[in-house]
Amino acid sequence: MSKMLILKPLSCVLTVALGTTTTPPVDAQTGSYRVACQTMVSLSQGASLTYRLAGSLPEITAAERLQNPVGTTLTLTVQWQDRNGRVQTLLNASALGDYEQLAPDADYSQLPFEETFRGQPNNADFLYGTPASVHGLYVSLRPTSGKPQQIQTVHYLNSGEYVRSTVGDCQTGNTDPDTTVDEQLKRLQERLQAEDWVAADRETRRLLAPESASLPPFEPVFVPPEMIRAIDQMWLTASNGRFGLSVQLRLWQQALTEHPNNREAAVNAFRDRVGWKLTAPRSEVDFISSDWLNESELTYSLQAPQGHLPWGGVSDEVVQSVAIPPPGVHCGSCTVDAMQLRNERFYSYIPQLMERVELSLDSPVSQTRNH
């Protein structure tokens, strides 16, 4: 695991200019594959920067790329989060360009990546940059042969001062994004049309957070903005506007307005608004559960509060599989692990999900943000 590197003490101001840059399309006759990567930087005073790369790359070798360069359709989203959990989007799906095309005469080995991610003086293979960054933001994917498996970023906060991210992971898949979205949403559409709210809720979590559902995940797991928008629209249509991600986003923003400096309080306020709080004691003592409703305790009907579905928790089966180890396996912390999975997950997952929903529902805006 790499560590953050800062040349100077961090300035209290991070300035990133947002821009709408058009990326050249990949040749229609060139096969491509989807790629999604994420990495982060830990800053002072509990703040952090998260970098999310998404898009597609052509199915060609490095030699073929040098002989016949083709454009990429990669974008980079950058989010800043403070110690209280407040999130600000600095770059929203900003276009990435091949660094060799952005700076054809540069010495690519001078970018301060770790050795494994550093380019050669005359070789910028799998090195990218975004023109939307004021002082420079660069991405390196590795390995350079085959499909990328890891990512690292170098982000100049001002002239001569940069942060280097940890080594993040990448997912790739040989699928057309539109076809993938259609195939993965087909079952959800069928469940919603039948008003099978239980099955539709599980299908939604299978798509958005597969580790929280008892259903087998799709491989690889991609959640492009168009999928989030489609999921939201399906729920809105099936429930006449009562359920859906955009309904939840509106309620989440209200909770944030009430508790701008306390993320935990905002999550609790959101929980109360969507009806995920336990209102009466359980008949049986359950050491794993808390005052959050479990999956089996949700109201799967149109009489539920606005935004009640889709749920943001973890399926009961998944929790039980953690709490109860297989026969012959001894686990001293299984109950604690199950409690953390069921209860504490809300406080990290809900803000992250709402930020993803907001990014997906809003189109990129060209502006400069200071904080």
* Strand tally: 12
Strand content: 15-25%
Structural shape? globular
For the record, give the distance between the C-alpha atoms at the N and C termini, rounded to a whole number. Answer: 29 Å
Q: Helical residue percent?
A: 25-40%
Described by strand count, sense and barrel closure, the largest sheet is: 10 strands, antiparallel
Keywords: Signal
InterPro entries: GUN4-like, GUN4-like_sf
Protein name: GUN4 domain-containing protein
GO molecular function, one term: tetrapyrrole binding
Please describe what this structure looks like.
This protein is α+β, with helices and mostly antiparallel strands. It has 2 domains: 16-174, no CATH class; 177-360, no CATH class. It is 31% helix and 20% strand. The strands form 2 sheets. Strands 2, 3, 4, 5, 6, 7, 8, 9, 10 and 11 form a 10-stranded antiparallel beta sheet that branches. Strand 8 (137-142) and strand 9 (150-158) form a beta hairpin. Helix 3 runs parallel beside helix 5, helix 5 packs across helix 9 (334-361) and helix 6 (245-258) packs across helix 7 (263-274). The longest helix has 28 residues, at 334-361. It starts with 15 loop residues before the first strand and ends with a strand. The model is unreliable at 1-29, 66-70, 216-220 and 363-371 (pLDDT under 50).
Which labels suit this protein?
single chain, 371 residues, alpha+beta, 2 domains, 10-stranded antiparallel sheet, two-stranded antiparallel ribbon, 31% helix, globular, disordered N terminus, disordered C terminus, GUN4 domain-containing protein, signal, tetrapyrrole binding
